[in-house]
Amino acid sequence: MTLTRAHLAKYIDHTLLKPEATPADVAALIEEAAGLGVFSVCVSPSLLPVSTPESVRTATVCGFPSGAHHSHIKAAEAALAVSTGADEVDMVINLAFAVENNFEAVESDIRAVRDAIPNSLLKVILETAVLTDEQVTRCCLAAERAGADFVKTSTGFHPAGGATVHAVGLMHAAVGGRLGIKASGGIRDTATALAMIDAGATRLGCSSSAAVLAGL
């Protein structure tokens, strides 16, 4: 796929989720995001609200990074985030449910958050490096049934690893064209970003956005 720098920028959620990030760090992130022309910034919910240019959306996370929070807590966190300015929420599934092949519970967990933010865009983080191919596929289908808008590979915080072309391809085969697919975790250069898009990614989570765009 041949993309211009400006087109690639519009795939990017410019991300700062380090637990030590300060409001000053977020302000610098937003300034950089405006200069790069990215789609959105993604910050921790405790740092909301933020002031972004009209062209830059605001995303946040819930149940992050473990996903082991109770569904009620995830739902409340998502609702609070939206009430304080988030346009999009990236939730982490309960990985224990997925590992145990309890996909009804995965779906229920996602649905609790979906119901809490019915008018906001919801992305579902699967942490694909932890799961088998079949589990990735079935989690994607559970997310679709629960009403999610996107499925997403990774938090970027799990020691098992981040996004892979293989995982993105699995997700695309499962729900591509019906749900968006966000690749996130370890995307630090242009070649990796383009490979993820070629595999089916429609959004990229990047903390190294300037480096990703530098190759175009």
UniProtKB/TrEMBL annotation:
Domain of life: Bacteria
Main location (coarse class): cytoplasm
Top-level EC class: lyase
GO process annotations (BP): 2-deoxyribose 1-phosphate catabolic process; carbohydrate catabolic process; deoxyribonucleotide catabolic process
A GO CC term attached to the entry: cytoplasm
GO MF term (any one): deoxyribose-phosphate aldolase activity
Protein location: Cytoplasm
Pathway: Carbohydrate degradation; 2-deoxy-D-ribose 1-phosphate degradation; D-glyceraldehyde 3-phosphate and acetaldehyde from 2-deoxy-alpha-D-ribose 1-phosphate: step 2/2
NCBIfam families: deoC
Annotated family: Belongs to the DeoC/FbaB aldolase family. DeoC type 1 subfamily.
Function of the protein: Catalyzes a reversible aldol reaction between acetaldehyde and D-glyceraldehyde 3-phosphate to generate 2-deoxy-D-ribose 5-phosphate.
Name of the protein this chain belongs to: Deoxyribose-phosphate aldolase
Name of the gene encoding the protein in the UniProt record: deoC2
